[in-house]
Specification:
- The chain has one domain (9-209): Rossmann fold (3-Layer(aba) Sandwich).
- 43% of the residues lie in helices and 19% in strands.
- The chain has helices at 28-37, 69-77, 96-104, 115-125, 139-149, 154-168, 183-199, 207-218; strands spanning 17-21, 43-45, 49-50, 65-66, 81-87, 90-95, 108-112, 129-135, 176-179.
- The strands form two sheets. The protein has a five-stranded parallel beta sheet with strand order 2-7-1-8-9, sandwiched between helices. A four-stranded mixed beta sheet has the order 4-3-6-5.
- It is globular, with a radius of gyration of 19 Å.
- The structure holds adenosine-5'-diphosphate and guanosine-5'-monophosphate.
Length: 221
């Protein structure tokens, strides 16, 4: 059960897998963390493993589990990753166990992963997956955000900008698209998506019994 602000959680429903993807710098990490940390939304954040070097502002175990290539390959070969991909020259993957636990509990989880990982998760958990693609308002603004973030070297920023068009071209594979111009507006749109998806009839497994109860109460059936 979920206790988001608008969820009729007492009815009971299947857990939701919310995936955000974007070209680097468009703002998916900011949005993902904002909604995971904002009170009341009940979205558990998936913490990936990566072979990428830790950025100055990042904390091991909170932003990523930073591991070496050998450990990554061992995890992958033991089937401990729900999905994995090579992105911008580094390995990234989603540990399987935490996802299974959250879904078993009927809770919702949010993922910041690329389009390759999104495909893998969708093929495994189709009905429970909702995907959102984040676009930048313009390419100069994308560059500006990467530079202002000031966490990557100029060479890494150039590589990410070079890969941006390949990533943007995947936008049609996603259920929803948000042009992240104003952060607050984007957050509200994302929150609206979560609300709508949680309200879907097919996802609310307890509705049938609830409606039967209502009809019985009405005394006319
Ligand atoms: P991504 O995870 O897509 O690589 P980030 O979330 O790290 O991107 O955002 C890149 C930079 O842009 C960060 O410094 C972030 O604070 C900033 N940012 C995110 N969204 C906006 C926005 N709507 N307007 C201005 N700056 C933004
Ligand atoms: P960054 O290095 O900027 O944190 O992430 C680079 C890219 O890797 C982003 O597109 C991000 O969504 C993606 N990514 C992060 N974690 C994972 C993961 O576990 N799996 C996959 N497939 N991609 C990931």
């Amino acid at each position: 059960m979920n206790d988001g602000p608008i969820d009729a959680g007492f009815i009971g429903r299947r857990g939701l897998i919310l995936i955000l993807s974007s070209p680097s710098g468009a703002g998916k990490t900011t949005l993902t963390r904002n909604i995971a940390q904002a009170g009341g939304w009940g979205l558990e954040l998936s913490i990936s493993v990566t072979t990428r070097t830790k950025r100055p502002s990042e904390i091991d175990g909170r932003h990523y589990h930073f591991i070496d290539r050998e450990t990554f390959i061992a995890m992958r070969d033991r089937d401990e990753l729900l999905e994995w991909a090579e992105v911008h020259g580094n390995f990234y993957g989603t540990p399987r166990k935490p996802v299974e636990k959250v879904l078993m509990d009927g809770r919702d989880m949010i993922f910041d992963i690329d389009y390759q990982g999104t495909r893998q998760v969708r093929s495994k958990l189709a009905d429970d997956v909702v995907t959102v693609f984040i676009l930048p308002p313009s390419m100069p603004e994308l560059r500006h955000r990467l530079e202002r973030r000031a966490e990557d070297t100029p060479a890494v920023i150039e590589r990410r900008l070079k890969n941006a068009s390949v990533e943007i071209e995947r936008w049609t594979e996603y259920d929803y698209v948000i042009v992240n111009d104003d952060l607050e507006r984007s957050f509200n749109t994302l929150a609206g998506i979560v609300t709508a998806e949680r309200t879907k009839r097919t996802r609310n497994t307890g509705l049938e019994a609830f409606v039967e109860g209502l009809l019985a109460e009405s005394g006319f059936v």
